[in-house]
Amino acid sequence: xxxxxxxxxxxxxxxxxxxxxxxxxxxxxxxxxxxxxxxxxxxxxxxxxxxxxxxxxxxxxxxxxxxxxxxxxxxxxxxxxxxxxxxxxxxxxxxxxxxxxxxxxxxxxxxxxxxxxxxxxxxxxxxxxxxxxxxxxxxxxxxxxxxxxxxxxxxxxxxxxxxxxxxxxxxxxxxxxxxxxxxxxxxx
Length: 188
Hints:
The protein is mainly alpha-helical. It has 2 domains: 3-60, no CATH class; 78-177, Substrate Binding Domain Of Dnak, Chain:A, Domain 2 (Up-down Bundle). 69% of the residues lie in helices and 0% in strands. The radius of gyration is 18 Å and the shape is elongated.
C-alpha cells in the first residue's frame, strides 16, 4: 500500500471522521504503525480538520502493512474493533512494561555504588507505578461508566482507555530513563 493509499484508508474510517472528538489514538497508532510520541502530538492538535491528519500521516510515510498484518488492519465492524482494541492494549502494556524495566535498570546503574540510594529509588519507582495503575483504573472506570460491563462496547472502551493511558505512561517513563533524549519531561 502506498503512503497516500494508507492515509486515505485511515481518513475514510468512521472513527476519524469526527476528529475533534477523537478518543481512539491507539487505534490510529496501530493502523499507521507510527510511534506513540507522534500520536501524542496529533492528539494535541486534534482540533484541526481530518485532512490535516491525512497530510501528517503522508509526511511521516506511514505504511500500514510494513510490520505485517495486525488485528487492526481493515477494522470494519464491532468484532474487528474489539480485536484491535485488545491488540492495542496488549501492545501498549508490553511497551509500558519495557519502559518500566528500563527505568529500574537505569536507577540500578546510576546508583550502583550506593545500595541504599538504589533501594530507595527502586521503592519510589515501584510505589509511583502502583499509584499510577490505581489512577489509570479509576480514570478508565469514568470513561467506561455508561457502557454495560460484559459487552463488546465496554471491553473495547476499556481496552482503548488502558492502551491510551499506557502509551502516555510509557512515554513519561522513557523520558525519565533517558533524560535529554526526548526533550522535556511530559506532564502526567
